[in-house]
Amino acid sequence: MADRSRVWRFAVGMRNPSQITLLISLFFATVYPLTLSTEGSRVLSVYAVYFMWISLAESWNLVGGYAGLLNLGISAFFALGGVVGALALFDGFPFIISLLLAGFAGAILGVALIPTFRLKSFYFAIATLVVPLVVKPMVEFLGNRADFTVPQTVILTPIGLYYSGLVLAGITIFGAYFLMQSRVGFALRALGDDELASSSLGINVLLYKSIAVLTSGFIASAAGAYYLQIIGTINTTLFQNLNFSLFPIFMVIIGGIGTFEGPVLGAVVFSLINYYVTSQFPGSTVDTFILSLMIIGVAVLLPRGLVSSLHELRKRRTPIPVK
Amino acid sequence: MDALLELDGVTKSFGGLVAVRNLSFSIGEGEILGLIGPNGAGKTTVFNLISGVYRPEAGSIRFDGKVISGLKPHEVSSLGVARTFQTVRPFARMSARENVMTGLLFGRGGINAPRRATQKALEMLESVSLLDKAEVRAGRLTLAEQRRLELARALATSPKLLMLDEVVAGLNHSEMNAMVDLLRRIQPERRMALIVIEHVMKAIVRLCNRIVVMNGGEKLVEGSPSEVMRDERVVAAYMGRRGNGGESTTTFSSAPQ
C-alpha cells in the first residue's frame, strides 16, 4: 500500500518539468511500436542502443555522480555482462534469466572493488582502470575463447528487443529515482560531498559505497547482456573498448551529473550527436575529435549539465513553508 | 561513576610528534565543558579521538558506560556523539534542508523515511534562523550560515554529547553573540552535554561551567572560567614565559586558524 501511494505521488505530485517530460516520453515510447506495420517494426531495433546507453549512463551516475567515486572502467562490467549473458543463452536459459545472471555477475565484480574504498577516490579511479585488464584474460582463460557468438535463434525479434530495452531503461530510471529519494540516496549524496562529515552523522561509508557499486555493477552488466541481443556477439576486446568506459561519463556530464534525469537526456543527446558526426565523417577519426571538443566545451560552459542549466533558467526555488 | 564521557590516559602521536599525551578528563550529562589552548595544543585531535576518526595508542575513552575507543566514526555517532568541524564541512551540493534531513535520517531520532524528515528539518532550520535558505545549496551559503547549518545538522542526530570545534571562528561580533545565544537556548532544552573548543574567550566564558586548558598535548589546568584565567601557567602558555596576564581576558589568540 505504501509503495503504491509512493508511485502515485511520483506520477501526480511532480512539480519538476523534466520528470513530467520523462513520463510523457516513456508513454510515447510505449505506444510508438503500435503505430508501425509488421514490416515497419524492423526499424525498432535502431532504438535499442538508446535504451542501452540510458541504462549504462544511469548506472555510472549512481557511483560517479552521487557517491563521487570515479569509475573509469565500466566497460569491464558491461563486457562481463555480455559474456555471462552469452553463456546463459548457450545453456538454454531464456533472455530474462541471462539478463539477471549477467547482473549478478556485475554485482560480484563490484564486490571485488570494496577493498579500494578505504583509499582515497583517486585510487578507486585507478583501480577501476585496471579492472578491465584483469577481468579480460580471466574470462578468456575460463571461457577458453575470446569470441562469444550466440545463435540467431536466441536473439529477440525487433519488437521484443525494443520493449525489453524500454523495460530495462524504465526500471533503471525509476530505480535510480526511488533509490535517490530514499535514505540510501541521502547517504550516497552526502558521502559524495564529504566522507568525514557523513560518518560523523552516523553514515556507514563503506556500506553505502558498496551498495552504490553493487547496484551500478548489476545494471551495467545487465546492459551488457542486452547489448549482446543487439549485436549478437561479444568479443573480449569489448572489455577494453574505451567508448564503453567513456561515453557513459560523457553522457552524464552532458545531461547533468548527480541528477536522475541527466543521464537520460545526456544519453539521448550524445547518441544523436554521435550518430550524426559519425555518419558525416565515415571511416575517419574526425568524429572522435569533434566529440572530444564537444565534451570539453560542455565541461567548460555547462559544468553542471543540461538539466541543471534548464532548471536555472526557470529560477523558481520557493521554500516550503513550515506548518 | 556517572560521567557521560570519560577519557583516561589517552595518548596519540603522529610520526614522532605526540599530539595528545596521557590526557584524562570527564564530562557529566548536560554539562558544558570548554577546551582551550594555544594553536597546536591538540584540541582538535581530542575531538577526532572521541569521534573515532583516530584510535588512541594508549588509554581508553568511555561514553555512556561503553568503551568507544576503537569504534568507527559512524558507530560512535549512533551512540549519541555529534560534532561540528573547525573548517566547515557542509554537503555542498545538497540544499540546506537536505543537509539537516541527512542528520535526521541517520541519527538516533528513529526517522527512516525522508518524507517524514522534511517537516522536522524545516523546523530545525528555523531554530537556527536558516528557514529562508532551506532550498539553497549549502555551498552557496555564507560562512556564518554554514556554521549554523552544521550545528543544525549535528543537532538533527539527537546527540547526548555535542562537540563544537570553533563554531564562532570567522564570525563577526553580532554573529558570534547570536551563535552563543543560540547555544545557550538550545543546550538546556535538549539536555545534552557540550564540549566547546574555542579561541574567543568571550564566547567560552559565556558558555562554560568548566574549562580544560591544553598545552603541548597535555592537560595544563582544569577549573572554572575565572580560576583558569587567573592561573599563571595558562597565561604563560599563551603569552610565552614572561607573560604577566591581566589585560588579555577577552581573547588569547587574536587570529585563530
Please characterize this protein's 3D structure.
The complex is a heterodimer of chains A (323) and B (257). By secondary structure, chain A is mainly alpha-helical. Chain A has a domain at 17-241: ABC transporter involved in vitamin B12 uptake, BtuC. Chain A has 14 helices and two strands. A two-stranded antiparallel ribbon of chain A has the order 1-2. In chain A, helix 3 (45-66) packs across helix 11. The longest helix of chain A has 27 residues, at 205-231. The radius of gyration of chain A is 20 Å and the shape is globular. With 257 residues, chain B is an alpha/beta fold. Chain B has a domain at 93-158. Chain B contains nine helices and ten strands. In chain B, strand 1 (5-14) and strand 2 form a beta hairpin. The interface between A and B is large, with 28 and 44 residues.
Q: How are the secondary structure elements laid out?
A:
The complex is a heterodimer of chains A (323) and B (257).
Chain A: H1 2-12, H2 17-31, H3 45-66, H4 74-90, H5 95-111, H6 121-143, E1 147-149, H7 158-181, H8 183-193, H9 195-200, H10 205-231, E2 233-235, H11 242-255, H12 262-280, H13 286-301, H14 305-314
Antiparallel strand pairs in A: 1-2
Chain B: E1 5-14, E2 17-27, E3 32-36, H1 43-50, E4 58-63, E5 66-67, H2 73-79, E6 81-83, H3 96-106, H4 114-127, H5 143-155, E7 161-165, H6 173-190, E8 193-197, H7 201-207, E9 210-215, E10 218-223, H8 225-230, H9 232-239
Helix pairs in contact in B: 3-4, 3-5
Compact summary:
By secondary structure, chain A is mainly alpha-helical. Helices cover 72% and strands 2% of the residues of chain A.
